[in-house]
Write a structure and sequence with these properties.
This protein is of the alpha/beta class and about 500 residues long. The protein contains 16 helices and 15 strands.
């Protein structure tokens, strides 16, 4: 179904600072590139939020009927310890510390990355290229930039000439920085520096004798600069100009700024029509940091093995929590926030489990079609998941009113309600029903039903003390009994 023809979508473009109507380069097709992880450690929860946000965007484009080529890279070489092209390669450094091969480090943490995203129910991208798999393409781009006089070679390293580039281009347009201000606020170069200007960045670095990861090039053995890999891979798989480039807010400068410069220098074209940036995740109101011990990994949330949260939380609850904030907003993770999300998640899952069994009537007291369009309107407004979730709970409210015989719904409207709710929760937001494992669910249902039977017997014998105690003790455990005309049912809060 080509829903996109009737659902105009607006996206906040980081390049212009405005929401713009999305118009793909090729009708019905979307080319999207998202900067992936540098695989030298376990995936950070903040990174998971970024990838989860673009997974939701990927899912919505697919739902609208677009054919999407989603490229998300793996950085397995070239990412030095700081953005000034200094320090060791992060992967090589880890390999030295553990006395293993760099590719063992890459393999270990790539597997961890995939396993973690799978637990969060992320769809795999269409293509997942690696930096080391595209060394040839990166060398070819460097040659093109050198030929155009926008880079220079020094002692086996090649640097991009930002000042020269800025004569005819606007370096800093994505991040809103002016080169003159950057030059003013930067330390002067020393005699040991190879760069002509502090703002210049490496396209190729000469490998010193101790450097493990190295490849032959026209300038000698070395390795590519970190920014170059994304230009090489995005243009190879999506073309010289493509629809969407995404990543975390922290990549806007210098990484994405350098990508734009490299692409414009090599092809003469603007590489991306819509730049999108996901915001950061904080923990208990502070920046996540290993050094201050204000940090938590996904596996520690799922297991409960941490000193920050009071209990374990399922991946589905964590994903639901993250979807409750707009992808461009800072989101604060806390025990209280996850507890609140868990309650909301359980309410949503209970509604999804009961919607198909709703009794239908001749007419509806709820305008289902208007509600359905409001769900689309939320997503069409720059993927506004918090507004979408508010609309989904509006649907949950009506489901509960229908269950209590306080509202009526027709069969046709019930089918639309059920299908819309399932589509947006499962397919678009990507939230699985992990409220209970199947075996646990059967066991729990049996135990609760046994207690309901004992309570019913106590009530029949006018033993209200026992009856009330069973009800209250179950409620304290998060299981609410509901007495109705057709007997007693229960829900998990």
């Amino acid at each position: 179904m080509q829903l996109y023809k009737n659902q105009p979508l607006r996206i906040h473009n980081s390049l212009t600072g405005k929401k713009e109507l999305f118009k793909p380069i090729n009708e019905g097709h979307v080319g999207m590139y998202v900067c992936g992880p540098t695989v030298y450690s376990n995936v950070h929860l903040g990174n998971c939020r970024t990838f989860m946000s673009f997974d939701m965007i990927f899912r919505y484009f697919k739902h609208l009927g677009y054919k999407v080529r989603y490229v998300r890279n793996i950085t397995d070489a070239g990412h030095l310890e700081n953005d000034a092209d200094e320090g060791e390669d992060k992967i090589a450094k880890k390999a030295k510390l553990e006395q293993i091969e760099p590719m063992e480090v890459v393999q270990r943490y790539t597997v961890d990355f995939h396993n973690t995203l799978q637990q969060f129910n992320l769809l795999p991208p269409s293509i997942e290229p690696t930096a080391t798999g595209h060394i040839i393409e990166q060398i070819e781009i460097i040659k093109e930039i050198l030929e155009k006089g926008l880079a220079y070679e020094v002692n086996g390293s090649v640097y991009f000439d930002v000042v020269k580039f800025n004569e005819d281009h606007d370096y800093g347009k994505l991040s809103g920085r002016k080169l003159e201000d950057m030059i003013t606020n930067t330390r002067e170069l020393t005699a040991q520096d190879e760069k002509r200007n502090p703002q210049d960045f490496a396209l190729w670095k000469k490998a010193e004798p101790q450097h493990i990861m190295r490849w032959p090039s026209p300038w000698g053995d070395g390795f590519p600069g970190w920014h170059l890999e994304c230009t090489a891979m995005s243009t190879k798989y999506l073309g010289e100009t493509f629809d969407i480039h995404g990543g975390g807010m922290d990549l806007k400068f210098p990484h994405h700024e350098c990508e734009i410069a490299q692409a414009e220098a090599s092809t003469g074209k603007s590489p991306v029509n819509y730049w999108m940036h996901a915001n950061m995740l904080t923990l208990n109101g502070r920046k996540m940091s290993k050094s201050t011990d204000n940090n938590i990994y996904p596996s520690e949330i799922f297991s409960g093995d941490n000193n920050i949260l009071s209990k374990p939380y399922t991946p589905a609850v964590v994903r639901f929590f993250m979807m409750q904030a707009h992808y461009t907003s800072i989101l604060d993770l806390s025990d209280e926030a996850l507890q609140a999300s868990e309650k909301g998640y359980n309410r949503l899952m209970e509604a999804l489990e009961s919607v198909d069994g709703l009794k239908t009537g001749d007419s509806s007291d709820f305008d289902v079609l208007a509600w359905k369009q409001k769900c689309y309107d939320a997503m069409n407004d720059d993927f506004n998941t918090p507004i979408l979730i508010a609309q989904l709970f509006e649907g949950v409210k009506h489901i509960n009113l229908i269950k209590e015989n306080k509202e009526s719904i027709s069969k046709e409207d019930k089918d639309i309600l059920a299908n819309t709710l399932k589509t947006f929760v499962y397919d678009v937001l990507g939230i699985e029903n992990q409220s209970l494992a199947k075996d646990d669910s059967n066991t729990l249902s049996g135990v609760v039903q046994l207690l309901i039977d004992i309570r019913n017997e106590a009530r029949a014998n006018k033993d209200f003390a026992t009856s009330d105690k069973i009800r209250d003790e179950l409620l304290a455990l998060g299981i609410q009994l509901k007495d109705g005309k057709e007997g007693t049912t229960f829900s998990i809060n």
